[in-house]
Design brief:
The chain is globular. It is 33% helix and 20% strand. It has helices spanning 28-57, 84-90, 125-137, 211-221, 230-239, 267-279, 293-302, 327-332, 337-341, 352-371; strands spanning 10-14, 17-21, 60-61, 64-67, 107-111, 116-120, 141-142, 147-156, 166-174, 179-180, 195-196, 206-208, 252-259, 286-290, 309-318. Helix 3 (125-137) runs parallel beside helix 7 (293-302).
C-alpha cells in the first residue's frame, strides 16, 4: 500500500532543459511543466531574434546609390561616359562586384568606407528597373536608409533647353504607355499630338518626385557654373534665332522628364511630350527625354524609397532635328553611340564631354551632402 506516499517524479530532457513531470493529483506539476515549456519557447525565440539581428548587422550599409546608365570604354582614365567621374571620386580603385541575377548590362561598385555605391544599369527601362530591384533585394547590402541619385544624359526640350543644361527632375512620365499613332494615320493633318491615354488610374505611368527634396536640391545646385563650347552656342543661336546669346548659355533648370524605350526626335514627338506632361498635371513643364527615369522611380516606390530619389539629367542633344540634321545623318551612319559622342557630329556636336562635367559638378554637390548627413 502507498497511503500518504508521493509517486515518483520523473525527469526528461528537452534540449538543454529538463522538464519535470509530476504525477500529483493537485495539478501543480502540470503547471510547472507548462511554465517551463513556455520559458523554453521564450528563450528559443530570443535566440532566433538575436541571430536575425546579427545577420542584419553583417550586411554592408549603403548610404547612397548613384545610378548612371552607361559608360564609354573603361571605368576610369579615358573619355568619360555617365559613370566615370563619379567612380573616380566615390569608388576609385574599387573592383567591380558581381551580384547574382543582374542584367548583363549592369555593373556594380561599392565603397565600404563611405557607403557610396555606383550601379551602372544599362540603357532602357527594363535594364534600369531590373538592376535597381536586384540590388535592393540583395541580402548582402542594407539599402533601407539609402538615397538614390539617378544621373545621366538626355535630349532637351527645344522650347526651353540649351546644350549643356542640367535638369533637376521633379516628375517622370512614361512616354510609351498609352496609345501611339503614326502621324500618317491622323485624321487632322494639323494635329501633332500622337498619343492618347490608356488608363490614368495606374500610378506607375507617372511619378512625382519628393517636391521638398527636389526644391532643396535645386537650391543647392542652381548656381553651379556650367561648361559649354563655342560651337554649341553658335548652333543653338542659328536654330533658335529668337534667343539672345545670354539665353543659350547652359543653366540648371527644374522640369519633367519623359522616359521612352525608343529614341525619338522631331516635332511630333516634342508636342506629344509636352501634352503627356500636361495631361498628368506635372508640377513643371516637359524638359528632357531619356530612357530610364520612370523605371527608377517605380522601382524605388516598390521599396518605399521614392521620397529619397533625386534625378539629374544633362542635355546633350535636342528633341528636334537641328539645321543640317536628318534621321539618316543622325542615326544611319553610326553603329555605336559611344563611338559617335567621342567625335564632333551633327547631333551632340562637341558638347558631350563638357556636359559630363556639368552633370558631375552638380550631382557631386548633392552626393557630398548625403554622405555628410546634410540632406536629411
Amino acid at each position: 500500500m502507498n497511503h500518504g506516499r508521493k509517486k515518483t517524479i520523473g525527469m526528461r530532457s528537452f534540449g538543454n532543459l529538463k522538464i519535470t513531470d509530476s504525477k500529483h493529483h493537485d495539478g501543480s506539476g502540470k503547471q510547472r511543466k507548462r511554465c517551463t515549456f513556455f520559458s523554453f519557447i521564450v528563450v528559443l525565440l530570443s535566440f532566433l531574434l538575436l541571430c536575425s539581428c546579427s545577420e542584419t548587422a553583417r550586411k554592408d550599409k549603403i548610404s547612397i546609390i548613384i545610378i548612371p546608365k552607361f559608360e564609354i570604354g573603361e571605368i576610369t582614365g579615358d573619355f568619360p561616359g555617365e559613370a566615370q567621374l563619379f567612380y573616380e571620386k566615390y569608388c576609385q580603385g574599387g573592383e567591380e562586384i558581381e551580384l547574382s541575377h543582374m542584367p548583363p548590362t549592369a555593373h556594380f561598385y561599392y565603397n565600404k568606407e563611405t557607403g557610396a555605391a555606383i550601379l551602372i544599369t544599362g540603357a532602357g527601362k527594363t535594364a534600369a528597373g531590373l538592376s535597381l530591384m536586384n540590388l535592393l533585394l540583395c541580402d548582402r547590402y542594407d539599402c533601407s536608409d539609402a538615397y538614390i541619385v539617378s544621373v545621366g544624359c538626355a535630349g532637351g526640350s527645344s522650347a526651353f533647353c540649351s546644350l549643356g543644361d542640367v535638369i533637376v527632375v521633379t516628375a517622370a512620365c512614361d512616354y510609351d504607355l498609352g496609345h501611339h499613332v503614326d502621324a500618317h494615320e491622323k485624321s487632322k493633318s494639323d494635329d501633332f499630338i500622337m498619343w492618347f491615354p490608356s488608363d490614368d488610374s495606374n500610378e506607375y505611368e507617372h511619378r512625382l518626385l519628393n517636391a521638398d527634396l527636389s526644391e532643396k536640391v535645386y537650391q543647392m545646385v542652381k548656381d553651379t557654373p556650367l561648361q559649354t563650347t563655342e560651337k554649341a552656342i553658335r548652333v543653338i543661336l542659328e536654330n533658335f534665332p529668337a534667343r539672345e546669346e545670354s539665353e543659350v548659355l547652359p543653366v540648371v533648370r527644374k522640369g519633367t522628364t519623359l522616359s521612352g524605350d525608343n529614341y525619338w526626335k522631331g516635332i511630333y514627338g516634342h508636342v506629344t511630350a509636352v501634352h503627356i506632361a500636361e495631361y498628368y498635371a506635372c508640377p513643371d513643364p516637359y524638359m528632357t527625354t531619356e530612357m530610364e527615369e520612370i523605371a527608377i522611380a517605380n522601382t524605388a516606390a516598390c521599396f518605399d524609397m521614392l521620397e529619397r530619389v533625386v534625378s539629374l539629367r544633362v542635355v546633350v542633344n535636342m528633341d528636334l532635328f537641328l539645321d543640317g540634321e536628318t534621321p539618316e545623318s543622325t542615326w544611319g551612319g553610326y553603329d555605336n553611340y559611344n563611338d559617335k559622342v567621342q567625335r564632333d557630329n551633327d547631333e551632340t556636336l562637341d558638347i558631350f564631354e563638357p556636359a559630363m562635367h556639368n552633370l558631375f559638378d552638380t550631382a557631386s554637390i548633392v552626393i557630398d551632402a548625403v554622405l555628410a548627413g546634410e540632406l536629411d
